[in-house]
Amino acid sequence: MPKPTAIEDLPIARAPGQWGDYVQLMKPRVMSLVVFTAFVGLICSGVPMNPVLAAVDIFCIAVGAGASAAFNMWYDADIDSVMRRTAGRPVPAGKVQGADALALGVVLTLLSVMLLGMTANWLAAGLLAFTIFFYAVVYTMWLKRWTAQNIVIGGLAGALPPVIGWAAAAGETPANAWLLVLIIFLWTPPHFWALSLYTSQDYAKAGVPMMPVVKGAKSTRLQVLVYSLILIPVCVAPFFTGLGGLAYLAVSGLGGGVFLLLAWRLYRSHAGEGADPRNTPELYDVKAGATDARNLFAFSILYLFAMFATLAVERLLGLTL
Amino acid sequence: MTDQPTFPEPRKPLTPAEQEAARVAQRKRNIAIAIGLVGFIILIYLVTVLKMGGAIANRPL
Asked: What does the DSSP assignment read for A235-284?
């Protein structure tokens, strides 16, 4: 899908941009998830580090994530302006000029990559630069408006922070580091499609080819189930590779059972198939099966957090290899 | 000819209250940038000292 509206055509608000609007450009909530997963990667490497240098490494990865978000806010301002969930973002709301968001992205990219290269090593810096490029160019500019597989392939950008953290600490990226990447990569489709099943009208309005918009709700629910079936064995795998201990096996196994149950319930529901006739067909009204989609979406966040937190705690307590 | 070029309407000049709000916002943004720059300088200083570590004394005099 071509980019429909020039950013320059968006409205300019009369209220001046506050410094907090520039912070919002960096999507602080997404940054917090990146910080957490990168920190777990760094801890799991098992390499002792100076705590200040470790904090600077994590800071660089967070700033790199902020740079990706600023690029995304700049490029996607046209579709953000027509979706209710994103219309209040600084660029579509007219608080910050698109060019300023772009400039922020460029400056933060240069600072974060160079500082990580000097503080840690150039393998970690290169991986960070690749992540920013993949999110800003491959996902935002290319995949998002072109294919329903956008978040499957684009999910790689969100999955890479653990391997950057690992590389920053150890200077290498062993198979266990990539196993963490694979977990987040396979976790992204069921997580995101569960969300899109109850916000798909928003995406349809913006012309974004999300899976429920292109293939329909039934096909999306089936794909959520299939990805969940592939995801859970991969989540348990770190126990067998020596990365996780018994506590991790319990969390990933039991949590995986709940995940599969919720994915099955979602598959059997009518989520994404239009409004409940008892409600007015407004965007965020309760729709058929929406509870099942929300349950899986919410639990997927808890599941990923619990697994990564367990890995970090086990490693810090010396309960694994 | 129907396809006449269209031009955006000129923006209305800011009212005194809006001008004052813009000045205050700009001042706050400038302070935020200053804090960010000072923080960055401190960060580079710390990283330099920590990376050099004890090796700074390990050089021919």
From this structure: HHHHHHHTSS-HHHHHHHHHHHHHHHHHHHHHHHS-TTS-B-TTS---TT
The token duo for A156 is 């790689």
* Percentage helix, strand, coil for chain A under 3-state DSSP, each rounded to 5: 70, 0, 30
Q: Are A256 and A232 in contact (CB under 8 A)?
A: yes
Residue-wise DSSP of chain B: -------PPPPPPPPHHHHHHHHHHHHHHHHHHHHHHHHHHHHHHHHHHHHHGGGGG-S--
SS3 per-residue string spanning A263-276? HHHHHHCCCCCCEC
Nearest CA in chain B to A121: B51
Q: Is A287 helix (H, G, I), strand (E, B) or coil?
A: strand
DSSP states of A196-242 as a string? HHTTHHHHHHHT---HHHHT-HHHHHHHHHHHHHHHHHHHHHHHHHT
- Which residues does chain A have within 8 Å of residue B50's beta carbon, measured at their own beta carbons? 50, 52-53
Contacting residues of B for A50, CB less than 8 Å apart: 50
C-alpha span between A118 and A101 (Å, rounded): 26
Which CB contacts under 8 angstroms, 24+ apart, belong to A137-140? A140/A71, A140/A72, A140/A75, A140/A76
Contact A272, A202 (CB under 8 A): no
What predicted TM-score, i.e. pTM, was given to this entire model?
Answer: 0.87
Min Cα separation B60/chain A (Å): 24
Q: Confirm if A154 and A179 have CB atoms less than 8 A apart.
A: no
What's the distance, CA B47 to chain centroid? 22
Q: Is this complex's ipTM strictly greater than 0.90?
A: no
Question: Do residues A129 and A108 touch, judged by C-beta distance below 8 A?
Answer: no
Contact A18 B29 (CB under 8 A): yes
| CA dist., res. A196 & res. A217, Å (int) | 10
Q: Rounded to whole angstroms, how far apart are CA atoms A237 and A247?
A: 13
Tens-place pLDDT, residues A150-189:
999 999 999 999 999 999 999 999 999 999 999 999 999 9
Question: Given this model, what pLDDT does residue A3 score?
Answer: 57
